[in-house]
Amino acid sequence: MAEADVIIIGAGASGLMCAIEAGKRGRKVLVLDHANKAGKKILMSGGGRCNFTNYSIEPDNYISHNPHFCKSALSRYTQWDFLALIGRYQIPFHERDHGQLFCNESALDILNMLLAECDKAGVIVQLNTRIESVERLADRFHLKTSNGSFICQSLVVATGGLSIPKMGATPFGYKIAQQFGINVLPTSAGLVPFTLQPEDKEKFSALSGIAVPCVVSNKRQSFSENVLFTHRGLSGPAILQISSYWRAGEEIVINLLPQVNLDAELKSKRQQKIKSKLKTILEGYLPKRLVSSFLPEDLLDLSIQDVSDKQIQQVTDQIHNWTIKPNSTEGYRTAEVTSGGVDCDAVSSKTMECKQVPGLYFIGEVLDVTGWLGGYNFQWAWSSAWCAGQYV
User: Fold this and answer.
1) Element (DSSP H or E) covering residue 112
2) Of the candidates 328, 386, 384, which has an alpha carbon nearest to the alpha carbon of residue 64?
């Protein structure tokens, strides 16, 4: 039976980061993963460029039943700490909207950096290894796997969530928590596109491929970014963001033209005695196909001179306050993250160790901490893993 000081289940972002930190402390670290490759989700993230962190990381960018839980880790290992690591490896990167940071070349740069650091710290990463059972006997964890049995003092669960099952996502981390009597909060797909009700889908599927800058809101939150119409429903950054705050059966409100006061614009055009059709004026602001899907043809064909105040109100309501009730989300198949997970109240925010089970740690996405789109989930992986790595 092979023995290690620390066994980490999961060779993703948080698992590798924790392994590095534990290895630096002279701990004998073994990382086990059922996949045939480490860091699969790192490689596919950000369209292959890995949105690895954000210039502006605040606890408010995270959703959890315990909103204070993430504060300690995020303040002890920050985006600047991760950027310093990237700097040492001279990985070129660039900033996109809202402080999002991406590799210039490839997400492989990040993965290679993590594996090089593991190597330096003497970490062993063993792939193609399925965990069959986990037991705690005396003060040791015993693992039976498809590649033999292992024993360790500290067991770290870095298995991620349920999103993108084709990349190998499973509920294994939640099962370990439940086996040890740790509460797991209900999970759902987060940062995920919406599907529409059949009649809405039929009406708007012709707009597939159109993206417009919008403000998308519900009663709890509001995001200002692009909305993309798809053949299944609605996607784009603003939709992915609001999806983490959406509950089934709720409506969302979309302002399709937030940068213009349409009421004032249309009344001003009418006052200037402009002869253009309403349709022509609106097509100056929004894509043609969108305009004709949202407003009746007989109204659009009117000259602006013939459009009444009441009709202007109808137009501005439809464009500035489009209210729609999504049918559902596309689910874990396309979700970027999993909301919910291992209850943070059961875990120390300083060490990531379970309060009731000494030596058992949970880090990264398996915990009930969900970041916004834009590098926040990777930063949570780095921060929570770094903290655990100081104690395992």
Assistant:
1) helix 108-120
2) 384
- One-letter amino acid at 302 equals L
**H, E, C per residue of 251-282:** CEEEECCCCCCHHHHHHHHHHCCCCCEHHHHH
Helices (H) and strands (E) in the chain, counts: 14, 21
Domains and CATH numbers, the chain: 2-189+337-389 (3.50.50.60), 193-330 (2.40.30.10)
pLDDT at 389 over 90: yes
Position 166 scores a pLDDT of 83
Q: Are 148 and 142 in contact, with CB atoms under 8 Å apart? A: no
110-137 pLDDT, tens digit per residue, is 999 999 999 999 999 999 999 999 999 9
> pTM to 2 decimals?
0.95
| pLDDT for position 20 | 98
Would you put residue 234 in left (φ > 0), alpha (ψ -120 to 50) or beta? beta
Residue 372 corresponds to which tokens in the numbers above?
């916004």
Torsion over CA: 277, 283, 288, 294 (sign): negative
**How far apart are the C-alpha atoms of 111 and 126, rounded to whole Å?**
15
Does residue 31 sit in helix, strand or coil? strand
Distance CA 276, CA 337 (A): 47
Spatial neighbors of 206 by CB under 8 A, at least 6 apart, are 289, 293
